[in-house]
Structures are given as structure tokens and as C-alpha cells.
Predict the 3D structure of the following.
Amino acid sequence: MRNSTTRARPVVPVVILGAGPCGLACAHELQRLGHRDWVLLESAPTVGGLGSSVVDEAGFTWDLGGHVVFSKMKSFDELLAELFAPHELLHHERSSFVLHNGSWVPYPFQQHLHYLPRARARRCLDDLTAAQARGCAPAGVDFASWLEATYGPALVEEFFAPYNRKVWATGLSEMSATWIAERVAPSDTGALRHALESGTIRTQPWGANAKFAFPASGGTGAIWRRLGSRLDGDVRTGQAVIHVDEAARTLLTADGTVLSYGHLVATGALDKLVAMTSGAPEEVRQAAAALRHTTVAMVGLGYRSPTADRRSWLYFPGRETPFYRATNFSRYAPANVPDSDPGRYSAWMTETSLPAGTLLDRAGLVEECDAALRRGGLVPENAERISGHLELIPYAYPIPTTGRDAALALIQPWLERHAIYSRGRFGTWRYEIGNMDHAVTMGQDIARRLMRGTAERIYTAPRPATAEAVHVR
């Protein structure tokens, strides 16, 4: 029996871990639905998570990776319209190319084979035609096998294998093919054959990001700072959670604060969540420990030299560069450079993928990226570099390994049985729903589910039969 002099700790109906896009959207939706009794904990000193932006000492703004604003989700578009007046967003049509053996091939690579030397283009097209004649790749194959079955060995050798190894820092046979969905562009062999014969081809812009928006100032992080500023509830930054007791429904922060919760919405890394949850069974711990992710080094390079390059971002499958992508960041918004003056400055944001835990020579990588940009003709040889800023993103992308789905089928149902709802890019560990609009949608959806019992729209990890809707009162 509880001692009559002991005061019960008040229970917070909903505690949210992480003030990235998913956590912020969850808190905002709870607030919109009239529920203000929640606490949002963020370990970093500011909100934004992987959507944050930073300003370096030279005055350049950098994102944590190549983010652009696009969506097919109505609720995300409505939120954006609520946060920004029309003139506060700049709109662009994507212009993207792949550097292939010293030449620029328009993206998607597989739709522009006529840019390759004729003999190599013909080999790619013949292999592609044969692959399409054989039909779809068998269900359950790994990513390497899926690529070869879908595109044929020549295209895999020319582009898909070197590029994806560089992005994922992982063997492609260790990856599943279940994540692909709309992430990889199709190929029309008839149009490609016509292009080889005539030398011309008409292609339609492909992908959801063929047109995109970007904040006029403040980088992508401006979105999340504005959303955070609209929250009226209890938002605590600099509050890292170090332990969760799922049986008692309590959590402990690094400064010794103990919170009791009714429901816990966790938007951080799933493997870390399981590791700090006291009662997780061994099979759940092992499944979480087997999840893999990439680390990305974002190197932002600013120059006292304008650029005439109008392209949005560029892909680099070859070994001649350390990075797999470079973004023409001064083109996104004039405010990304000092004094908002792209007539005097240019900014290139590069991304280099590393296996988790890699020791990094930070200064060396900055110099390598600078040299690669100059060598590739993107920056003049005599351009004065006035910024070389590096941000290491320890958890950049969850890797869809062959064992991922089986691991999630163990982890997520166990968490939900204990009123823990893991959402967001790393909360679900599903790259295929890892964009900002996905994260916002997941945050909104779990808030609605907890408040009103409505079904979630895009969360697809397995649920136990007993995980019917629960209501916060």
C-alpha cells in the first residue's frame, strides 16, 4: 500500500520524444485538437532534428543534408500554407544531372542512355530490353538481384551499383528491395531506342520532387522553427531521455527528471529507444541492435565567387569524388549566402556517406570536397573559399537491410503493447516513408489516433491484434 504521505507523481497523458518534423507535428496536432496536456522533450538545444539548418561563421546557411519541400500529402501542404505566406517560399523546377565518366547525363540516368557513348548505350538498352522481357524480379530478392533483374547487368555496372554503394555504404546484396516503391524511375525501352536512332528524346519530369519549394530565408530549418514557435504546451529542449520503464510508464532524463506518461510517442532512433527501455525482451533487443544506418558528413563550401550554374543538385557515382551528391545551395535561396548576395558568393553543399562509427578526418574531407568541386568544373580554380563547414549527421538514413522487416515485426508490436509509439524516419526505420512530409503525416496521425481512434495513413509496420485505437482523456 502506498504511504499516505507520498505524493503521487502526476501522469502526463502524452509525452513526445524528439522535436524534429514528426514530434513537432504530433504536438501541433494535439494542440489543434484541443489537447494541451503534453510534454515534448528534445535533447538538442533547438527544435528541428534532421530538418535543422545552421549558419556558419562566414554567414552561409546550411541544411543537414539535401532537403527540398515537396509533398503529395494535403495535410502537409495545409500546414506549410499556415506557416508561410506565398512570397516566403521560393519555387523551383528540378534540374539534376549525373556525372558519368567525365560527362553530364540528365537524371534519371536510365531514361537518358543516348547521352552515353553509342556502344555502351546499346549494351545497356539490350540488357534492359531482355530484363523487361523476363518480367518482374521475384518477390523477396535482395536489392542487388532486383537491380540486375529489373535493369540488366550493363546499367547496373554503369550506374546503379557504384552509385548505390556510395549512398548506402553497404553491400547491395545485404539490402532488401521492399523499400523501392516510387524511389526508382522506370524506363521506356521504345523511347530509348528511338533516342539512340534519332539522337533526341522527349522525357517528362519524373518524381514528386520535379518541382519543389524552399524557404526564402533560414533554410529548411525555418519550417520547424516556425512550427515550434506555435506550440503553447510544455516544450523542453536540452532534455535527453536516458531510460524508459515501460511497465511503470516512466522515463528519466539526463538531468534526473522523472516523468510519468500515459502514452509515449518516440520519434528518435528506434535502436536507441529499445536499448534504453528496461523491460525489452532479449529477442527485441537483438532485433533492434541488428538495425543499420548510415552516417553522412555534410560539407558546405562557400566561395567569394558567383556561379552561373543553374542546376539544382548533381549525383556522383564515381570514385573521383568523396561525395555522392552536391547541391547548388546558393541557387535555392539568395539568403543562403552572406548579405543575400549570390552575385558575389556561391555555396555548394556536399554529402558523403559513411558506415556508422567511421572515424573521420574532418579537415581532410573538407579539402577533398573542395578539390573535387574545382576538378569537376563546378568552382573556378582561382575562386576564394571563405567557408568550409562540416556537420556530421550520425543517424542520416535507415538502411533497408534484408532483415529489417522481420526485426520491425518483433520490435514495433512489443512497443505498442506498452503504449510506446515509435514514428518518424528513424522511429519506423523505413526509408520509403522517410521524407519530411511523411514524418509530419506520421506525427499528425498518431496524435489523431490517440485522441480520436482514427487510423494512421502511412504507417505500415506490423501491429499486434490487440493494438486497437486508444484514446487520451
